[in-house]
Amino acid sequence: MIGRLAGRLDYRGPDHVLIDVGGVGYVVHVSDRTMAALPGPGEAVALYTDLLVREDLLQLFGFTSPVEKEWHRLLMTVQGIGAKASMAILGALGPEGVGRAISLGDWTAIKAAPGVGPKIAQRVVNELKDKAPAVMAMGGALPAEPAAPAEVIEPGAAAAPAGPAPRPAPPRSEGSAAAQAEALSALSNLGYGPGEAAGAVAEAAQSETETAALIRAALRLLAPKE
């Protein structure tokens, strides 16, 4: 199983890149969002990968974080969601957006991904809502992206001219993954179910970023309505 690749980005295709790892080129399919975060050709790059095995085909899919990879694998457990649809959803929403949409039951956000219809989007939300908290919590314990390999310069060789700086990954817009993971853990310890806790944290994260504030806001949302 190939779980991670680190090498040099050789070229970009419409939906894939070629990564040179020790002289061997690996074709890795990526989402539009991941493609936008990658550096230019010739630059160092590292991606977490998932290998899709079929009778007549082997395909590698690349991700900037373990959380994104886990969402891809989880999305593909839903009937009607293949690799292409999963990558479309992740490309449209990103891993945090997917977790937020599923936790809040917002199937219209899932439907916004190209090629995903309303019935499939609703199925994604219904089947994955109780599994979302575990994946969301991963964001607080794992690195956001793999480190790219350092360039090795042979003795006596001139250093290669510096290329363009890699494009940064899209910024997080609503709360940090670590704070959301801690809030989920706190609500779980208080006895709330995974689905309701994840929904409350996702909604609270739209306005709060600190752990304590997230917990307080989520508790207000979970309080019985008079």
UniProtKB/TrEMBL annotation:
Region annotated Disordered, chain positions: 158-180
Key words, A-Z: Cytoplasm, DNA damage, DNA recombination, DNA repair, DNA-binding
Keyword DNA damage: yes
GO cellular component: cytoplasm; Holliday junction helicase complex; Holliday junction resolvase complex
Start and end residues of each stretch annotated as Domain III: 177-226
Cellular compartment(s): Cytoplasm
A GO molecular-function descriptor: ATP binding
Positions of region (Domain I): 1-64
Domain called Helix-hairpin-helix DNA-binding motif class: residue spans: 73-92, 108-127
One GO biological process term: DNA recombination
Comment text on domains: Has three domains with a flexible linker between the domains II and III and assumes an 'L' shape. Domain III is highly mobile and contacts RuvB.
Stated role: The RuvA-RuvB-RuvC complex processes Holliday junction (HJ) DNA during genetic recombination and DNA repair, while the RuvA-RuvB complex plays an important role in the rescue of blocked DNA replication forks via replication fork reversal (RFR). RuvA specifically binds to HJ cruciform DNA, conferring on it an open structure. The RuvB hexamer acts as an ATP-dependent pump, pulling dsDNA into and through the RuvAB complex. HJ branch migration allows RuvC to scan DNA until it finds its consensus sequence, where it cleaves and resolves the cruciform DNA.
Family in the record: Belongs to the RuvA family.
Subunit architecture: Homotetramer. Forms an RuvA(8)-RuvB(12)-Holliday junction (HJ) complex. HJ DNA is sandwiched between 2 RuvA tetramers; dsDNA enters through RuvA and exits via RuvB. An RuvB hexamer assembles on each DNA strand where it exits the tetramer. Each RuvB hexamer is contacted by two RuvA subunits (via domain III) on 2 adjacent RuvB subunits; this complex drives branch migration. In the full resolvosome a probable DNA-RuvA(4)-RuvB(12)-RuvC(2) complex forms which resolves the HJ.
Protein name: Holliday junction branch migration complex subunit RuvA
Species, as recorded: Psychromarinibacter sediminicola
Phylogenetic classification of the source organism: Bacteria, Pseudomonadati, Pseudomonadota, Alphaproteobacteria, Rhodobacterales
